[in-house]
Amino acid sequence: MAKTITLTNIMAYEGKGYFPAILNNCTWHYSSETAGDGATQSVQVIPSAAGECTLTSEKHSLIASHKYYLSFKMRFESQASGTVDWYWPVAEPAAVFGMKVSGDANTWIRYSAVFTRTQFTDGNYPCRFDYNNESVNVPFRFTSCMMFDLTAAFGPGKEPSKEWMDNYVTAYADRQTVNRVENLGELFTDIANAIRAKSGTSGQIFACEFADRIRKL
Question: What's the rounded Cα separation, in Å, for the pair 166 and 169?
């Protein structure tokens, strides 16, 4: 059977989707409008001027050599564009740099990345979300912010890719589980079970039969 992995959201805040923050070059309002993925609230961020609009969190203790997965959602109130940087610690270079964000009015878009901070040392530092504002004073909503320690959850050298996380972590939660196949035996068992379930059959299926069975489904 696949291994069950528990993911703890480092940016969790009572299921709300955003995190308490010190604001710079912007103001915000709390909102019940969400992306419908499990987060219970969002914040409407209103840039004050062109340039960096930042949300700086409380301190979080991270391990510089670990891989971390970051995901959040934004929804602009009119067509806009810009870039986002993510910091931990708040020092150059950014952990995630120049992530392009854009969108039509009132469209939720998910953004994600995997990063390490090996050029720094382990410690207890704030995280910071930087929106590099190109579309002056266009408000946007921000929610569903999650950050997971992939190395702690999956083990060194077993961390999944950004694409795998995007595919299997589709809902927001302060804490959630995913199932991960870690060897070929588990993979073949899962494939055989899926074939039996889809075809309504039972009995043993050999690996050499998989391709033909799948083509017939």
Answer: 6
HSE (side-chain half, CA atoms, 13 Å) at 105:
3
Residue reference for tokens 């299926």 = 205
Q: Single out the residue of 94, 53, 47, 92 nearest to residue 70, CA to CA.
A: 94
DSSP percent split of the chain into helix, strand, coil, nearest 5 = 20, 40, 40
**pTM given for the model:** 0.84
Separation in Å, CA 145 to CA 42, 115, 170, 184: 10, 15, 12, 33
Evaluate whether 85 touches 96 at the Cβ level (below 8 Å). yes
Q: Return the pLDDT at 183.
A: 55
Q: Specify whether the CB–CB gap between 63 and 111 falls below 8 A.
A: no
Nearest CA to 138 out of 82, 53, 72, 78 is that of: 78
For tokens 């995280």, name the residue: 127
Q: Which residues in the chain land under pLDDT 70? A: 1-2, 182-190
- Token pair 């039509």 in the structure block, residue: 104
The backbone torsions φ and ψ at residue 210, rounded to the nearest 5 degrees and listed phi first, read -55, -50
Residues 44-67 have pLDDT tens digits of 999 999 889 999 999 999 999 999
CA distance 125 to 21: 13
